[in-house]
Amino acid sequence: MLPIIACSIASLAIIFERLWSLKRQRVMPENLVDQVWKIHQEGQLNDATLAKLRENSPLGRLLAAGLVNRNHSREVMKESIEEVGRQVVLSLERYLNTLGTIASITPLLGLLGTVIGMIKVFTAIMAAGVGDPAVLAGGISEALITTATGLSVAIPALMAHRYFIGVVENLVLGMEEQALKMVEVIQGRREKDTEG
User: Fold this and answer.
1) Is there a smaller number of Cβ atoms within 10 Å at the N or the C end of the chain?
2) Where along the chain do its domains lie?
3) Residue 196's closest CA among 35, 19, 31?
4) How confident is the model at residue 190 (pLDDT cuts 50, 70, 90)?
5) What CA–CA distance (Å, rounded) separates 106 from 147?
């Protein structure tokens, strides 16, 4: 039971941390591309502005990576965005492997508890015979409780894992769209989209 309880605490901590960290507004602030475009038009795009943009959000990191190479070709800007994008995706997926592992191992820990409980039942039967139902009930009860506890931790952890994978995929697609829009606007190949 102790490993299952530890997994439960870890999964709750991960779920709350990811709910906070993967808020759309934290990852992709609204109108960030528009703000960058205005700064670029005003000629105020310097190292300090880029450093501030990098610290702003994951989308800011992507935009800053492209803007560092704004005087190069469109392809160079896109490559630099893709390189930083891989690191950003890893940071967005942080702890999701752990959550998936918890979802996988807690039913097995519950099954282990079931096996241990049944071993105790059979040990009690060997020692006292089948005449005392209270001895049998205790072992069977322990076996069923650990199985149920393992499943009650695994099911929400698995649901949260799947949910966060979907959230990360949507955020990555949105950031990619915003970064490409910025590249096209900076390179002058598309009119500025005022919707951000």
Assistant:
1) N
2) 1-196
3) 31
4) very low
5) 9
